[in-house]
Amino acid sequence: MTVRVALVDDHDVVRTGLKMYLSLDDTLEVVGEASNGLEGVAMVERVQPDVVVMDLMMPVMDGIEATREIRSRFPDVEVLALTSALEEHKVNGAIRAGAIGYLLKDASSDVLGEAIHAAARGEVRLHPEAAKRLVREFRAPDMREHLTPRETLILQRIAHGLTNKAIAVELGVSEPTVKTHVSNLLSKLGVESRTQAALYALKVGIATLDP
Asked: Single GO molecular-function term (predicted)?
């Protein structure tokens, strides 16, 4: 399946390089680009990509605000943050705005391509240092005793980046059953996304950052 990708970055040379990298993968198609967050939101409305690769530090509207706007208006469009920033407020801001992943601009073309495909499947991909910062700063009450054993197993697998379909296969249950458990998990944990649920799992030790 071809993943339709949009690029939002204020540097022409960065967008040109990204297009060159992504053109090496015939399952990725760049369908639009923009030079700031405001243009990015309008472009997403026009072309409806599967994944937006989003810089964070841009004029007019930054990537965090653009991510929040895109995820609010176009919930089927995933946003992958790609930036040079590792400051904790940037990492936290992007994830809380709805980004499914966070990579640095020095990521190899293979890593970036895999992360885009993962985002299109609804899987989380985080740069290791970004993950450490997120886990350190993540705030949530310890709800482990309120989770059922099945919910705990599913939460572990969310933290490992598995989709509902993959979790269903691994646990031998139906995908709708997993979807119901995930919805209950998000509600119990008081979080809005699978990425935040994964961070909770890492924070309380249900999953680890180690491979």
From this structure: DNA binding
Query: What are the tens digits of pLDDT across the range 155-192?
Result: 888 888 788 888 999 999 998 998 898 888 888 887 77
pTM > 0.90: no
State how many domains the chain has: 2
Place of tokens 């992504």: 22
CATH number at residue 170: 1.10.10.10
- Structural domain including 15 reads 3-136
Q: Which residue has the tokens 């990521």?
A: 107
DSSP 102: E
Whether 21 and 106 map to the same domain: the answer is yes
**Residue 209 belongs to a domain:** no
Which pLDDT tens digit goes with each residue over 94-139?
Answer: 888 889 888 888 888 888 999 999 899 888 787 877 766 665 665 5
Q: Are 34 and 79 in contact (CB under 8 A)?
A: no
Which one, of 37, 141, 138, lies nearest residue 91 by Cα? 138
- What angle (nearest 5°) sits at the alpha carbon of residue 158, between those of residues 126 and 70? 60
